[in-house]
Amino acid sequence: MTDLHRLSVRELAEGLGQAQFSSRELTQHYLNRIDKIDAQVKSYVTVTHEQALAQADAADALRQAGNAGFLTGVPLAHKDIFCTKGIKTTAGSKMLDNFISPYDATVVAKGNAAGLVTLGKLNMDEFAMGSTSESSYFDATCNPWALDRVPGGSSGGSAAAVAADLAPFATGTDTGGSIRQPASFCGLTGLKPTYGRVSRFGMIAYASSLDQGGPMARSAEDCAYLMNVMAGHDAKDSTSVKKDVDDYVANLNATALKGLRIGIPKQYFNVAGLDAEVKARVEESLKKLEEMGAILVEIDLSMTESYVPTYYLIAPAEASSNLSRYDGVRYGYRCENPVDLMDLYKRSRSEGFGAEVQRRILIGTYALSAGYYDAYYVKAQKVRRLIQQDFLKAFENVDVIAAPSAPTTAYKIGADLTPVEMYLGDIYTLAVNLAGLPAINAPVGLDSNNLPVGLQLIGNYWSESQLLSIVHQYQQDTTFHTQRAAIAEENA
C-alpha cells in the first residue's frame, strides 16, 4: 500500500476492481503525498481533500453495488482552466482568484460520470499564456526533475503533478504547445488532440481557434484511458466535431510500425537554437523506430519560418477579444474604491492581469485595430492557411511527422529570457495548433543534466489512435517513460 503511486492507470483500475485496495485508500494515499511533497513542487492551486474523499466513497459504493465502470475510483487532477462546480477556478490569475464556478466544464463532467476522483486543481501560466508556468499568480511551479528548473507551460502544474507522482494522470490544454512542451520538460507522455475532438465548454478561453484539451500521463496507455473519457462531440461547444470516437485503449496495438512512413522535416533539425543533446536523443529515438520497422523520409516544410510570427498575431488577437469580459463589473477581480467607470475598468484590468497577459492583450488589440487589421490579422490568417496546406501536402507522402517537442530541456527558474526568446522556444509546437492537427510528446531520454528530452509526433486529422499506438509500441520496447524524477524516488 506504500507504492500505489507507482502503478499505472490500468494497474490502479484493476486493483480497485479486484478489491486489493479501496478508492478511499488510494485517494488518501495521493492526498498524503500532496501534503508531504507539493510545498516543494507547487503543482496544485487547490487541493480538494473533502470532495475527493466523498467522491472516493461514492466510487467504492458503486463498486460494491456492481455498478462501476473500469476507471471508477481512480484519481486525477484538472488544470485550473477547467471550470469545476463549487471549487475555485483561477486560470492562474489574480483576476479569477475569487471565482467559484457554478457549473462543471464538459471534460470535468465526463470525468465525474466515469467515476474519476478529482484531487484538485493544478497550477498554470496565467490564462495559459506562457511556456514556463512562472506567470502564475500563485507562484512558479517547480520541475520535479530539478526544483530549480521550470516544468514548462502553460500546463506546468499538470506535468509536475504527474512527474512527482502526485496524480496518476491529469488534464491539460494546448494552445501552442502547452501540453507537449511541459510533457517534454517533465518526462511524460502528452497528447494534443485534433481541434474539435475534446469539448472546450467550460474551459476558460485564451485563443478560441487554437485551444484544445488533452491528457497528460506517464505512458501512451495511461493517456488512452483518459482520452476515452475526454473525447467526443458536445452540443454545448459549437466547435466540437460530430465524429465517432475511437476506443483508444483497444487500438493501442492497431498501427503497424512495419512500413510506417515517418516524415523528417529538414528545416526542423537545422533550427539555430536546437540543443545538440536534444537533437541526439530525438535522432536516437527515430533510429529505434526505424529498427522497429518504420521508414524515415525527409520532407520539406517550407513555411517553418512563418510559425512564430503567425501564431503571435492570431493568438494575442483572440486573447484580446476573449479577455475583454474581465472588466471588474460582472465577476473576477474588482479594484477598490473606483472613482468612476473608466477608473474601474483601467485599475481592475491593470491590477488583475499580470505582465505577460497584458503584453499579449496589447499586441492583439493593436493587430485588430483600425488601419492594422488587414495588414496584420487578416494576413496572418492567410499565412495560417498556407501552413495548413504545407502539412497536408506532406501527409500525402508520410503517415506521421517527427520533430523535437522543444529545442532545449527545461530552463532555469528566473532565466533571463526576453519575451521573443521565450516565444521562439515554441517553434516546434505552434504550427500544430495553427493547422488544428493532433500531436503527441513521448519521453526519449535524458541530457547530461539529467533532464528529460521529448520526441514529438504529428499526425493527420483524427489520427489520435495512430499516435497513441506508435508511442505505446515504442514504450513497450523502451524504458524512458518509466524513469522517475528524484523527488518522486526519494518519496516513494
Describe this structure in words.
The chain has 492 residues and is α/β, with parallel strands linked by helices. The protein is 38% helix and 12% strand. The chain contains 16 helices and 11 strands. It has an 8-stranded mixed β-sheet with strand order 4-6-5-10-11-9-7-8, sandwiched between helices. The mean pLDDT is 97.
Could you give a quick summary of the protein structure above?
By secondary structure, the protein is an alpha/beta fold. 38% of the residues lie in helices and 12% in strands. The longest helix has 22 residues, at 373-394.
Main sheet: strand order: 4-6-5-10-11-9-7-8
**Shape estimate:** globular
Count of DSSP H/I helices: 16
User: How many DSSP-defined strands?
Assistant: 11
State Rg. 21 Å
Largest sheet: 8 strands, mixed
The pLDDT mean sits at: 97
Structural class determined from secondary elements: alpha/beta
What fraction of residues sit in β-strands?
5-15%
Helix content: 25-40%
| Distance separating the two termini | 11 Å
Q: Uncertain spans, ≥5 residues at pLDDT below 50? A: none
Secondary-structure element order, as H and E?
HHEHEHEHEHEEHEHEHHHHEHHEEHH
